[in-house]
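[[Encoded backbone]]
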Amino acid sequence: MSSLEQELERRGAELLERRLSGFEPRLLAGLALLPEWTEDLARAVSLTGEPLAELLERLESLGLIERRRVLGARGRRQEAFWVRSGLRSELAGQVRGVLREECARLEAAIGAISPLSPSAQAWLRAVRLREEPTGLELVATVDRLIQDGDLAAASRLVTAAEVLGRTLGGPLADAARRAAWRVDRLARATDDLEHLRHYLHRQEAEQALTELILGDGEQWALHLLGGGGTGKTMLVRYLASGRFAADRQVPPFPVARADFDHLDPRYPEQRPGLLLHALADELLGYGTHRRTANAFRHFEDASLALDEELGRTIPDRSRVEALLRALATAFALFVASLPEPVVLVLDTCEELAKLYPPGSPAPGIEHTFMLLELLRAELPQLKVVLAGRRWLVPPPEPLTAGPLLSERPYVRVLRLGGFAQQEADSYLSRRAPGLRADLRAAVLDRARQRGDGRYNPFELAAYAHWAAVEPELDARELLEAPGDPYVERRIVGRVLSSDLRVALAVAAELGRFDLHLLSPALRRHGIDPGPAFDALAMYDWVNVVALGADGRAKVIEVDEHLRDRLRAVLPPAGPALLGRDAAAVVDATPLPELPVESVEAAVRLLPPAEAGELWERLERRVVEGGHWGWATQVCARVAAVEEGREGETIIAAILATQAAADSRAGRPGPRVWSMVELHAARHPSPRHREELRTRALLGMTATGQDVARTSDAAEEPEEREAEEEDWLDVPPVIEPPVTEPPDRDGVLVGSTVAALEAAPSRAAWADDTLATLWESRHDPGAVNAAAAALAVTQARAAEAVQEAARLAELAIAFAALPPGPPLLDWDPPANLLFHCRKARLEVAVRWAEPLDAVPWELWRAEALAAPDGDEVAALTVAFELGHRRLARQTLEELDPGTPGPLAVELAWAWAVAGDPERARRLLDGCVEHAVHEGDADLVERARLALLGLALRCRTTAWVPELEAIATAGAPAERSAARALAALMEGGQADPPEHLASGAPGRRGRALLAEAQHLVKGDPWRAVALLSEAEPLLRQAQDDDGANQALVLRVLTETFSGARTRSTATRSQGPLFLGVPESVEGSQWPRLARAAEGVRRGETRGPVLDTARRMLFGPEPAVAPARPAGDRRTAWRVAAGALYAGSAVALTLGFMLWVAPAEGVGVVSSLLLASVVGVAAVGLVISGRANENVVALLLGAWAAGGALAIAGATLPYGWPRAAALAVSLVPAALTGGGYAYLWSVVMRHPPLYRFSVDAEGSTVSEVGSLPWLDGGLVGRGGRYVRAPSTLRRALTHEDGSITLEMRQPPGTGPVPMAMQLSPEVRDQHWERRLAEAVPAVVRDRLVVFREGYGEKVARRVWVAARKDAYLGPPHLAQGRKAPSARGGMLGYRLLHLVGQVVDTAAGPRLRTADDGATAVTRRVRAGERLIGPELEDAIGLVVLQPEPDERPRGLGESRAAFLSVATRAFARNAQAVLVLPTLTDALAAEVTSAIRAGYPSGLRQPYPTEMLELALKVKRILGPGLADEMVLLLKTR
């Protein structure tokens, strides 16, 4: 949303608030809650205390309500009134605090009224269902009403539910949508059944349908091939109405129809997913569960993601193809939620083959079958029926015309012709029972087709109807009548008025028309057009196409099967003369009011030369009036009519206008320009032939298509195959030169400028042309806007600063003049002056012009004041930043209200100013804003800037989704992400393109970024670049960047030995960095400390070793010099000796204390000491001890022995007794503590670790949990080792795993940590590991994905909110929603329930939020897209799909949920728990268990506590479903 749109929205909200300020909130809430009020109902429920008439006048005068007169009780007329539909949601948002209370009051008040109107009854029924979470009761109620035949009651109930859903939110909104789909489907089925009143069962066709739908053969598509009137449409109606299933006694199944005659002509080139949309809309009514609604919403999200990518300035072709396949997958998931089988019907398939020359590929056909094949691969039960008049696969005998077709063995072709004798007899018996035998024979003879002896269904139906209504018809006369008796007698013969017969002849020639188109010809014959038009509309062989505002026919058409027959019977109406009449109507009618029928008729009836002149006039009017939206709709229809003309045709001119209209709508179509070039030679005017060909070549250049490739029918088969694969309208970027200057009369000026803008090149003729245009700048019709744009293209392509600056200044001069008339094929930018200033600033930035070269300060001020000046303001910041640091006050003043290009550039300015964290927040805001608005270009621009800043700060903490960007981002994003990842791991990546020129700051930062990538691979080059970058950055006042260059150069020289000629700067100034501690995860603080150490003369040490690893990667591992067992033996020998000595000392001390020396012999003391020493040595040498235990016990005994010896020197009495007692304390405490630790470990199961990388998988038993005792693990090992339970781990050829293990001790969780490489993280390892362990372990197994992070400070934990929740209201359990920007103190428990959405910035979670009112492309009212909230979770994050009627796994959304979980886990969350799809009851139980089991103390939970909670949840979920749970846990 632009700043202008935001301002308009803000002012609109303020205006609405002022309009509502004079009314009570309770009154407004009541108005919003009901679809419609009446005076009687308002008085009965005491809606207001003031006189109702005065209230309604006030509300209507403020534009808040609409009203009408209706009949009330006992026939009394009264007012009915309702809130305007566009204001209801906003009104509800203003009074949300009293909505539920007022709803409860109205429910009680209306429930007490008797009798109730049908509308009030429907509202009361709907409001009583508002808390039902599944919505199934509402859908079931609507189904019952439909089955009872009360469609009106069903519609009223749906309307009431929709209103309540929009105002109250909650599950009723979704349930109302599903119920509305059911009603719409019933209406279509009712219409089908009406048309099937006289349907004739056709055995062959129905048998083919039965074999297709109910069989399991290899052919899964059926093509009904036949001409008009052969029964294709009736078969489709029979299938879609449900009668096909009912006649075969099978359950009803979903049938979706898409008619290519009504599909947007931009399919498939510009809207490749449009067919799936049309089919999905038809299928919605077959779903009853929330699963269907959620799957359809997922399909809409996938479609939006595709549209985002296609909307990029330069779409990524590979990503477009991937997104199209994702769209097909989403559609398949939607279809999978419906009953089986699902049948897709594609009607009027001949439209796919139009406009393609003979022998050339038909991308429409190829693309359509590609989509069907993608769907079939995922939906084996899918069936497809195609209907049309043209072949879609190669016929048995080669065609002499038509496009190139591909073999498709899965398509069965059934040729539909006329009725067989038996079918015709059966039809007559049904349609006209009791018909006389002679009349029956006459009808059959008249309907018989010449050649094959079959009967034309349309003719038979017409004659049968005639015979049924006129049973006295003379059979002999009918049989022997020449010509076409049905038309002559049944149609023309019943038109008694001669005037009406003339009108009928004109109508047959026109085909489809309105009153204005019919009038000139009738007036020429002296006929009043109005009554004649109304009379024609009354005939049953005339179809009413459109109604006017008064309900009368506005556009009508003669049945297409009768037009030629009427023309053969009636006197000629003069096609050319009618064409001129139509042309006169076209010329005289304003384009917005001109119906397409008039244009169709004029082009079809006029001779080609006159049609070309008409189209030239029409195109000029489109250009002058800017009616491109009208042209978009008209061109496709008229081109379809003109496509059938043989010989000379104006189809190239029509397609050229269509291409120009598409480019105005941001949908440039290179294929359309290709067709223009192909058909240009058939234009009747030689001048226009060459002009159209030139326009086509320039248009192809402007849209990026290779002008050397043409759609020549004689091209090689290999080229045709390549063309077939090129079905997407995402052209490669090329740069063909525009070698010819535009013509002098301005026809091709716009085309030339558009081509040069798309493919910039320095044209040799440009300077002369610009000089000529400058001389004529004040002439009438001067094309100054195009001249300005032309000068801009040349300035950007110039190779010298003086030349580029001169051309840019010339562009600005042209932009200051009147723009001139609008041009074909090109529109000037919305703000031409800003466009030219932007080019001038680009020149200044590129060529490092001084700050006084352009008046950038004035331009910045004007750009900031304009709604569309963001790009210019951003360039002024870039220009200034290239020369100097922007002051903080300036940056505060420039802070944009709306994220965009200016915000991206300001992020760099804030980083240079020493506040990179603010820069990061700006860029994060840009990404989130762009995600909501579907702006893929801004997403890419902001993420590239964020990756660049992360590279400058040497951190990956700012980009938690770095791995996802490196694999699935846009091409530039992938490159930058991989480079950052390699840099942070001490690896090597390709450096960015070398910047040879630029302002000091811009070039210095570019050199620094380039050098960082060269440190390991080419340190000499890196040192040279850093030496050059440092003074440039200091000159630009980028102190942080200069210091970074210095630090990096010092360390690179030290570690690699690379040197430059000058090292003077190495001893100048302190090595201070402005980003040492403020940037999370930055390497610069440690690199700076290492550089300071180098300055002090240090050559070794842990700081330098760490810096070396950061810059050059880890050193290769070196094998130990001696076996590990030697060290353990030495430890044990030394420990044994020391134990013995300490035991002797303790014994002697004890003897001395117990009695004087003379009382106990020395021999006795030595004997006792020997016994104790032998016991100690045995304990140490036992296999249970390790280095940690040796060190622990050794210290305790040594301390005790020293204290005992010291105590022996004391005199007898209490001093010596106290000394001996103290000497026993270390041994007692150590032994007791060790015994307790041993008991804990023996009761707790061991930790297993499962690792997977490119080389395979490994399973190991780590031992006791290191977190039990706060990390009592020494360098020599754990203090206590649990007994081993893992016997063997086997990995089989099919990828399955088997773990042979004994049951671990205890009853708590058995934890298994997983360490997964990025390429395998999305796989379902939790289930595979659960299946791998024995059954006795499976119930206790808790698999988690391991991570590491810092503990949250106690003060932060204590101050944080306990929990927050977003999702369906019935699961809230009293919890509040998190702040949109996040809580300043964070959340200990954040529970989010919603659906994942794929965006240009990666997957996001969309949740329900009753307090959200903003509506964007991603969210509706009452929804929120989760972004910054994830950063504020410091404890547990629970991610959960929306509940459904049956529990199931994450399915296709698993990877997306894991991506969101990984993003939260990479931030501050201690743990993330991803749950599967649950029922409402199970979800409520799990929610209660999590809230009750999650520790709420004054400290962050231990990992073991998180495992206990996960095991509790797992046991609630039960077998099978528990394995779908995913846990991410930081263990330290």
